[in-house]
Design goal:
The protein is mainly alpha-helical. It has helices spanning 36-50, 56-74, 79-82, 88-99, 105-131, 136-167; strands at residues 12-15, 24-27.
Length: 168
């Protein structure tokens, strides 16, 4: 036979009267507040939500890691269909170069660097689908590409914010 226990009432502590005042009553609640872990998770969540635009590349990279892992589990041969997409950034770069030639060597260098970075990022997808995103070399390349994209994103956001403030 299970015995049901009643919840305990909150204990009250009486403090002796102070000079000329009313008695002070302190009520202690038996319920505990959130744990330190819960408070840390809540604070991290609030911080991430506040700065969510700054972390867009990392969020996209994590999503891509999960999706490639699922595709690898379902059908790794999909990598053969995704492999030709690796050539797309180089084709877009060549098309833009012919259509609108750069006015300076710096612009040409930035365009080529951007095309190489995007080609590396797009080339990661078929490799992750074929070999598994958990493979050590694929995971290290994912981390390096994510770090490079995040740093470039933050620098670009800072430069464009500074440029728009200066023109105003």
């Amino acid at each position: 036979m299970s015995r049901r226990t009643r919840p305990l009432a909150a204990p009250t502590v009486r403090i002796p009267r102070q000079r000329g005042g009313q008695p002070v009553i302190v009520v202690l609640s038996p319920e505990e507040g959130p744990t330190l872990t819960a408070r840390a998770v809540a604070a991290s969540g609030r911080w991430l939500w506040k700065h969510r635009r700054s972390w867009a590349p990392t969020g996209l990279a994590v999503l891509l890691l999960i999706v490639t892992g699922l595709v690898h589990l379902i059908e790794p041969r999909t990598a053969w269909f995704l492999a030709p997409i690796v050539l797309a950034p180089a084709g877009v770069w060549a098309w833009i170069t012919r259509r609108r030639p750069a006015t300076s060597r710096t612009a040409t260098a930035w365009r080529a660097l951007l095309a190489a970075a995007v080609t590396g990022a797009v080339g990661w997808v078929p490799l992750a689908v074929w070999f598994s995103p958990a493979a050590p070399a694929v995971t290290v390349s994912w981390a390096l590409l994510t770090l490079a994209a995040q740093v470039a994103w933050l620098i670009t956001r800072r430069l464009t914010t500074t440029a728009t403030k200066e023109t105003s």
